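Hi L.,

You mentioned the student needs an example of a multi-chain input paired with its predicted structure. This one should do, with 334 residues in total across all chains.
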Amino acid sequence: MKKFSFDADAQAFITAASITDATEQNAINNLVGSLKLYGIWSKMKALYPFVGGTASTHKFNLKDPRDLDAAFRLSFTGGWTHSSTGAAPNGTNAFADTFLIPINYSQNNFSFGCYLRNSGSYNNYMGSVDTYRNYLLALSTTYYAQINSSAFSGTTIIPTQTTKLHVISRTLSTTASTYINGTLLYNDNIISDGRTNRSIWIGGLNSSGGFKYYSSNEHALSFICDGLNFTEITNLTNSVNTYQTTLGRQV
Amino acid sequence: MKLTEIKSDQYTTYVGLLTPKQKELLVGQLYTNDSYFNAIQDNLDNWIISVEEMEYCDNPEFLWVKYLELILYVPKPSINTFM
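Structure written out for the whole complex:
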């Protein structure tokens, strides 16, 4: 009788992160399978499923689960609360460094995002900024999202959905698109003109200035990827929603 | 006020007050597995750490953080440096 085995990439992560719970193992395996089915897996550079409930399990990158900065393994700093539902920064001094620096990647083929389980006050979900901007940032009800541009769009959009999967993606030099739960929030027509030379943080903004915009939104998945089109974002959203539902932590 | 005197829903209100010497001791150090201290300054330039770092610290070398005096947290004024 043939023994069931997990996808090799899923198994590598399960082993590295010491995930022993069968539900979590199956959720990871199904997430990887789904992303491969939709052709998204190969585009992923960093994918943090925040499974296992501790900093030691949450730090691993599902795409490359080596315990190395070069594998974009997270480094948690400040007051994080880790649980079975994800990783929650405290909004005071907590961030996680991905070690992934946008300047090393294509200017017009880049995306990132996160699945959030709650709303906070000062909210920088993910990002880095120097001369150029890469961030998903919400200050109360004002939402800013930019990718690989020096100009500040100043777009004020009030989202009706502040939880679930937030994605910003650039596949053209002329437009970056922001989605929440698979629905287009807005197209930013700011032209890309450069990439930040600072690594992307989760839970705060890796800025050359003093203010870091620490947030208190719980992350149940975060990712950094090549640019994604509308169909890919739809498929990614459905895959992530299924993943969260399997783990009983969907919102 | 001390850590034992507050409830979890007050964690975002208070922070632990450090001396400059204490702050230097925490630079680059772990408070628990795979989690680093991050001392920052408040609006009066006091060095502080979060209640989470104090509560979750199980590094024997730094258990003293659990006995830091708590003060109300007032962050530095917001500046739109992301613009």
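You could point out the following to them. Residues 230-246 of chain A form the longest helix (17 residues). The two ends of chain A are 39 Å apart (CA to CA).

Best wishes,
N.
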